[in-house]
Amino acid sequence: MPDTSSYTPSGRTVPTRSRERASYDRELVHAILDEGCVCHLGFVRDGAPVVLPTLYGRIGDRLYVHGSTGSRPLRMARQSDPGLAVCLTVTHVDGLVLARSAFHHSINYRSVVVHGIAREVVDEEERRTALDALVDHVVPGRSHDSRPADAQGSAPRPP
Prior knowledge:
alpha+beta, globular, 5-stranded antiparallel beta sheet, Pnp Oxidase, Chain A
């Protein structure tokens, strides 16, 4: 039976410096993701990198990122097969290290870097589940206290 307690390192995920500080432990990765609210979503457009801050939510090993149906990454994901290659990062600053020498100043942080393929969620039930995950990631339980979105993704206006 394969070990599922850790993610498998790859050439893209192993740092060139301080390798011993990197962890692929699934529980630790999920804890860092669950603690944050904003991720940075990176992709390539017209041969140049683009990085956008956005909300995200996690269900198991799957990450959902917020985006309107007309957003650049979602349009690109629709046009690409099997989807849009992305890099998603979440970082938490734990402390500044101020030294006597400017050269030795540093920062203590925890981060997760995820490489994957972004695809549009087209199944209506999965869309609702993903939207609930995004809302509840920011404020747990909020999706049950809010009006549900309509088919276009916006909440219906009261009469």
